[in-house]
């Protein structure tokens, strides 16, 4: 490094606050600080600003109805269609030639869909689905990787008023079956396979295996042919080839179905405290307006931008910020099929350069990987088109933040560190890029209109400088409405901790710990429930545990998250063998296999530690914190409350020796 560079590194390392550059502020969608006060004073009417981002078939009567809290309703009486908002209105406004989706396959092939093209194919596929019998309110499951047919299918469902339930393609057959069963879903859209690091992966086999586990009749399955001759597959009687169907309906037009604002737009399953994934229900009016508003205010997206969110559409981030938010604003959304280091470690930067990407949104785990690979990869490319950077999914450590700021943003792009969840539908805590000072590591203040607080166990606000629990004390349009067909669990999971039902006070509890500073900036510390966050993906420890205790030879298991340099957290398994079974490689392999089968590769254990006992409190609870500390190599705290303190040293010694 030159002296100049060393100085720069030192300066950056010491700097704790960063101002958005003037050039950014001048053009920002939101740059008036008064917006915070304006929202506070006009709450809930302030949310009309979000609803105004959309085109309504029927104007709404009320912004918020809270008669039956926490079952809040937004924009009641209003009617709209999400696909019409993402497509038709841009075409009608003469912007049909604008590129909607710029898709890049892993092997380098590209597909460009203008808004005209996208509308055409969405209508064709909607006609197909309708002809197969899909009706309003039928849940259609989409088990597809990052290919254009995924957003096309989502928008085709939205056009018909049929909620979609996207299952991440990396999830296992079991996970697919569980989700289809839970949603009583009778339709599936999937594909033959896709590419990962240049290899053709069989996907249809997994889909078929999943279908075999569905407990009701599945009427139709549509299969996209992604791999062509690369993978021979046969279709059974109720399975149809996507291209054949769409060709049959070439040029079809399908009127978008007007949906009530509160009608379900989609279901998204996510991990929670128990072993069973939760079906988070999002609605048409509130969700879409919130996704559009936050895309406008936080991501600063404008119609003539090229915007790239590198998440997978199988997660909420992809739903809100690859598909619905950006397309509602009429922008160009880049979609990349593959892995960031294929064929080389500069793939992301090559895509940014080639497409003149203006705004880039990714996860801290990706940034840590880029950092590890080295600054020479981004340096090979001209990244000067970038105007704004964002992160989501997990806390970002200040070092990674600064690396991103310097090596990707060239110290010219603000960074928005956005805290939110599947359940919140869109961003909740982050600086506004044209207004707020940025503090690396801290997400920032709650967005205008969002009443985020940090409280102690009794629900009282903590003094600044202290840690506590994050709560949201007022509803917002993008919030989940319930857990699918399980209102009780909805109340129990999110509204039981800090609410006071007797006085009709409802407080949303996201299950995150956080601290707050003098300026009201919130640093999110991580989950306080049994959810771990591996590379920004939410996994329930109970889900993984139940997969492991299903493995022959395992008597008991505890799963915890341990620190990991790139993934943030990694899965550590502590397992007790059944009598008559031997600890060792063979059983370890079967444990790993069991996890892969029931969840998928994202949950793959980093380490399996066999132990004769698990550390337990006197009341018999597994001391997870202790197991986490062992996995992370931390100092072990007081173990005197344990029933079996001696076991801790035994386990720790084993982890050290591995
Ligand atoms: C969008 C998404 C939600 C959980 C959430 C929290 C963690 C997300 C974060 C963050 C710190 C951020 N999380 N963004 N933690 N800083 N900027 O990731 O949804 O998959 O439901 O995960 O992720 O723990 O509770 P989801």
From TrEMBL:
EC category name: ligase
Keyword ATP-binding recorded: yes
UniProt key word NADP: no
The AMP-binding enzyme C-terminal domain, residue ranges: 543-621
InterPro entries: Ac_CoA_lig, ACAS_N, AMP-bd_C, AMP-bd_C_sf, AMP-binding_CS, AMP-dep_synth/lig_dom, ANL_N_sf
Name of the protein: Acetate--CoA ligase
Stretches assigned to the Acetyl-coenzyme A synthetase N-terminal domain: 35-86
Species in which this protein is naturally found: Halostagnicola kamekurae
Keywords: ATP-binding, Ligase, Nucleotide-binding
Molecular function terms from GO: 3-hydroxypropionyl-CoA synthetase activity; acetate-CoA ligase activity; AMP binding; ATP binding
